Amino acid sequence: MGSEFEKLVKNKELSNLYFDISQEILNKPNIDNNAQLLFLVCIENSLSYFADDIFENFKDDSKPIDHLNYIFKWDELSNVLPIKNIITKELTSDGLISLIEKSKNILFREDNKNLISSSELNDLKKFNSIIDKYKAFKELLRKTLDEC
C-alpha cells in the first residue's frame, strides 16, 4: 500500500542550502526582527542537517539522532571520541550553539523600561560572527573526518 519514503536530497546539501540562505539574509539592506528570526532558523536547520550528515559517519558509535533538535544532536555527537573535542568547544558558553541561543533570547525578550543601562542587542556584527564561527567549525570538522 504505502511506498517507502525516498530521500531525494542529501543532508550535506540541505545543510549548505540553509547556510546559503542565512548568508543571503545578511546581505539585505534592512535586517528587522523577522529577518533576524529567519536567519537564526536557517542556521539552526543548517546545523541540524550538518549533524545528520556527520552522524552518517558514526552511526555505529552513536544512538540515533534524527528525532532530536539541533542542540541535542550535537550533544549526542559530542560523545563520539574522534570529534569530541571539536564539538564540545562549540557547546560551551562562548561556542557557536551558545551564541545562537543568546541571539534567540535577545530577539524574544521583552524590554524592561525600568532599566537605565542598555541591554545587549542583535546586530549585523553578531550575526556575521555566527557565520564565521559556523564556517570554522564546519571546516575543522570536515577536515578531521577526511583525515580519519
Walk me through what this model shows:
- The protein is built from 6 helices and no strands.
- The radius of gyration is 17 Å and the shape is globular.
- 23% of the residues are buried.
- Helix 2 (33-57) runs parallel beside helix 3 (70-77) and helix 2 runs parallel beside helix 6.
- The N and C termini lie far apart (42 Å).
- With 148 residues, the chain is mainly alpha-helical.
- The model has no long low-confidence stretch (mean pLDDT 88).
- It has helices at residues 11-26, 33-57, 70-77, 84-91, 96-108, 124-147.
Summarize the structure.
The chain has 148 residues and is an all-alpha fold. Helices cover 64% and strands 0% of the residues.
Per-chain topology:
Blueprint: H1 11-26, H2 33-57, H3 70-77, H4 84-91, H5 96-108, H6 124-147
**Helix proportion range:** 55-70%
SS class: mainly alpha
- Which geometry do the CA atoms define? globular
Largest sheet: none
Q: Provide the low-confidence segments as ranges.
A: none
Q: What number is the mean pLDDT?
A: 88
Q: How large is the share of residues in beta strands?
A: under 5%
Distance between the termini: 42 Å
- The number of E-state strands comes to 0
Q: What's the tally of helices?
A: 6
SSE run: HHHHHH
Gyration radius, rounded = 17 Å
